Known about the structure:
The chain is of the alpha+beta class. Helix content is 24%, strand content 30%.
Amino acid sequence: MAPDRATHYPVNMSELRLEELSATTIVAANTLTLKPGQEQFVAPVSHSIAEAYVNPATAWPRVVLDGDDVVGFIMGNFDPDSPHDEFRGCIWRMNVAAESQGRGVGRFAVTALAEEARSRGFDQLTVMFEPGELGPEAFFTAVGFTPIGETQYGETIAALKL
């Protein structure tokens, strides 16, 4: 009997990889289940996929795979000509399956997106999130983001120097 993947801590980073969306991974990404209460802090993956389709020149959607299992989704936006600094190189969306949280999947995804940003000539990566007890602030702080401002809607803008 195979051990439950959720009991492995941390995940074997050599088994994690990013892939572009495909017909198979889109379905799996759309069915990622978050921990109770987290849904209020992220838009559904289907919204990100639609945005990527509308903005193919700047959107960078990827699934995180642990072996053959989709365990996360991350979408970056790379628009060096954006009039808003916070939208030039940013994490637009990120979801990690509830059973994979706390195992290094999110850190892997952010690191991969940061490497992509660096390879495109960006020196900073930003993210925006709603503050809240079950929100992503503690995670983004733990991976090196520092709050730098606030949107007009009260969301925190945080930056990671690359």
